[in-house]
Amino acid sequence: MLPRVMIIDDEEHIRSSLVGFLEDFEEFDLRSAHSAEEALEQLRREPADVCVVDIRLPAMNGAEFIRAATEQGLCVRSILHTGSTDFRRYIDIGGLGLCEEDVFEKPCDGVAILERIRRVVRKG
Amino acid sequence: MPSPVAQPSLSNRLSLSLGILSTGIVLVVTAMVFLFLSWRVGVQMEEQAEGTIDFLSKSLETPFWTLDKDSAVAVAQATAMNPAVGLLELRDGRGESWFAYDGGGKLFILREVDVLYEGQVIGHVRLGLDESDRVRTVTSIGLAGGGIALFIIGVQYFLAARLLRRYFRGPFDALDALVGAYVKGAYDVPPPDVEYAEFAPLRRTFLSMGRTIERQMNQLRESEERYRAIFDNSPVGIFRTTFEGTLLEGNPALARMFGYVDQYEFMGSDNANVQAVYADPAARLQFLQTVLQSDSPVSIETEFVRKDGTAFDAVLTASVQRDGGGSPLLLNGAVEDVSARKEAERSLARERQLMAAIFESVPGLLFLYDSHGRLVRWNRAHEVMTGYSSEEISGRSLFDWFAGPRENVSRVVEALRRGKKDGAATVEAEMTAKDGRRIPMLFSGVGVTVDGEGFLTGIGIDITERKAVEERLRQSEEKFSRLFRLSPDAIVLMELEHGRIIDVNEAFTRVAGHSLEDAVGRTASDLQLYGRPGEREALRQAVLERDLVENVDFSLRRKDGSVVPCVLSAQRVLLEGRECVLCVLRDVTELKRMQDMMIQSEKMISVGGIAAGVAHEINNPLGIIMVTSQNLSQRTRPDFPKNIEVARGIGLDMNLLDQYMRARGLHGFIENIQQAAMRAADIIRHMLDFSRRSESKRRVCDLRAIIERSLFLAESDYDLKKNFDFRKIRIVWEIDDGPHLVNCTETEIEQVFLNLLRNSAQAMASASPEISDPSISIRLSARDARVTAQVEDNGPGMPPDVQRRAFEPFFTTKPPGVGTGLGLSVSYFIITRSHDGCMSLESAPGRGAKFTIDLPAAGQVQTREDACFHES
Q1: In terms of domains, do B684 and B546 share one?
Q2: Are B440 and B455 in the same domain?
Q3: Pick from B26, B94, B366, B443: most CB atoms within 10 A?
Q4: B684 contacts in A (CB within 8 Å)?
Q5: Do B549 and B601 have their domain in common?
């Protein structure tokens, strides 16, 4: 069974291009959601191994999502993928259980994200 | 004088008295004789009656017996013939009347006898003697006696009158004449002649009395003359009034006092009742009450009114003169006009008040020391200033005030010595107050002699403020002198008339190149300071017209001939009575550059602000572009299993597709898309650096460690590696002892140095001809609370136009896509804006570039303006 990866971004083209990029490798069971709420709903049915989360989301933001998903055991690891430049001012990366390697600022190399997911999945 | 007629004469009285006495005696004797004789007449008449009746009874015995009636009647008739018989009745034994005779007159004696015979009553006889006979006898006796008495009295009167006149009236008249002479004031009359011894003492007494009276009268006259002289000539008004106020007596002084010619005019005037002369009529009443209650004279001070209506102050002293019964009778007293004295007193009091006011209003302490150096008079300020109460301050010695350093006391001693010689002296000394404060004072003292005793008087002024002002003035002068000398602006002081320079400061020497000695005494034209023709006249005109010229552009020609852009301000001033012009020149070369930079910085800040807002919006599409182009590139790869699978499904030969893509250069295009997206993201990131300000966390960092990290980043910089191997550059460290601690945001400073290193590396890499021994010198020094870092390469350097624009945003010499043109401007921004530091560049073509960064050392509060002020 492939590791389940959830892409959460309110920008549809980001979602589709990233899903498109990753699915070609046929290494992951990919899901996507346009909001944190929708993602949590899906995850309650099928928890994920990795969530790639945008920070600026319509209602619940990325950080809140990570906190909720981790608490509810809906997602093992998360990766931040954000277009914001000043997110560090209000988000404590370490407090969310993330490290600098888990942070990707848009625009970024899709390969880098792929490699990070592979690495995280391998670590289990 | 009693009327002599009205009073009885003594001699008359005496003779009358004697007359009355002797008359009384004569009358008494006469009356006694008369009474005796009258009694004797009565007795004789009774005896006569008894004899008659006996005779009758015997004579009638026989007739009765014999009843011889005729005889009996004859006898009776004979008897009745006697005029003395007033009644005669005869009755026989049986009671029958034989005879009855009644003369009808008043009876004096009535006798009745019974005629007896042989013891038998034979008849009755009744005899009454008539009163008139006896009266006739007695009257005769009385008349005779009275006549004799009257005779005797008359004789006695006559004799007494004659004798008394002879012996009494004469001497008495003489004495009377003597007294009369005395009464008339004639004391030198001859003593009267008196012939009897009884009058001699009386005469002596009278003469002695006369002499005594004469002496006393003389004394009295002399006394009166004396007192009259006093009364008339007394300067004090003397008076005597009734209680109702009627003026009975007054002396000339009193009259003059009240405005009259003399006392007679006063007493004849309306004011003769003194009620009217009191200014306050109630005052007299009140005074009278007081006087009545007192046994001794009472004085009051009151106001009187003169004849002409003017008032004057006077002291009224009076006492009550009482009558024998102790009832108040008169008021005697004196009035003294004290208006002059009162006026003098008022004047004196006013003088005293004025003196006291002056004394107290002096803005310092006043003192008066006696010859023993004891404080005897002082003003309130003295107490206030020194903190001593008036009890404590009294009698304090002059030297009690001066303690402290010896020279403080010796100055006072010296001043006293000088004062003794010259009569006055001033000295500055510190006076010790009660609480131990030492007050700097200026004393001014004068020696005065009053009633032969020497005093020291004078004034002391607190000069604390003056001293402070002097000190401030000195400091101010020093400050302004330093300001003038050390002002970063060139200052020139010149006289207006000829424009000759009076003084210049160090900045002038630095900017214009002329030393103080060169400049003073010469004109600006002599020194050829005007960079543009006509500038001199324009300036002179402006100063003359407006007195003040502010911030006008001015071109200053230096001694070496180069022209420096300046801003000039000039002010017309009056110094030591001379019209001068003070010119301040500011070299604005650097300022102009800084201004340009500032303008750019401000632009960038707003750019940064906008960038922060739109970054997210742009990064997202960039992300789409990035991943989508990656997808394009990936999905056209001929070796990717998924591609092969999908292509096979639709009968597409992936190798052919790949050949087509290569033939058309599509892979290159896709890569271009990716690079363009990355470049755009780079620009965004750099733009954001402008908006990242001091909100980043500051901490104290070692600048060397930061530079070392930047070096490490530069060595591992991916972009740099592509063109130039950073490790080929020789890094030369030159470090002093430090410490090189600065309070900063590490990542920002790190970025600054990374920019500098990257620029140097890129410049050296692109240098042509190639640099044989590329090296970067990094110098670190700590001085004057500043930490200075220099990064100097031996690269190609910059021509002046590039150098001038090096910090300008978006200005770059790198090929498109290599640099954003923001690196140095962001660095400048970080150093100057975020860290209060300075950043400058020195370079020349072929001589490398040297960036100097100057930051305040940790723990120092110094504004960038201060720091960079020194730099320039």
Answers
A1: no
A2: yes
A3: B443
A4: 85
A5: no
